Amino acid sequence: VFRMSPLHHHFELLGWGETQIVTRFWIIHGAGLAFLALFVQGILWKAV
């Protein structure tokens, strides 16, 4: 369960800085988009 909502406030309460939160969210977002692009192109579709 999260300590506070919205989600970024939860991480602030854990001691993360705002820059660290934004950077990690961007990294997760980019990894998700890369995975989606591979899936849509069929590269991951053939592996499944």
Structure description:
- This protein is mainly alpha-helical and 48 residues long.
- It has one domain.
- It is 75% helix and 0% strand.
- The protein has 3 helices and no strands.
- The relative contact order is 0.10.
Task: Provide key terms for this protein.
48 residues, mainly alpha, elongated, 3 helices
Give the domain tally: 1
Given helix and strand content, the structural type is mainly alpha
Number of helices: 3
Largest sheet: none
Portion of residues in helices?
over 70%
Order of helices and strands: HHH
β-strand amount: under 5%
N-to-C terminal Cα separation, in Å? 33 Å
Low-confidence stretches: none
Rg (CA only):
15 Å
Average per-residue pLDDT, rounded, comes to 91
Quantity of strands, as a count: 0
Global morphology: elongated
Compact overview of the structure:
Helix content is 75%, strand content 0%. It is built from three helices and no strands.
Topology, pairings included?
Elements: H1 7-13, H2 18-41, H3 43-47
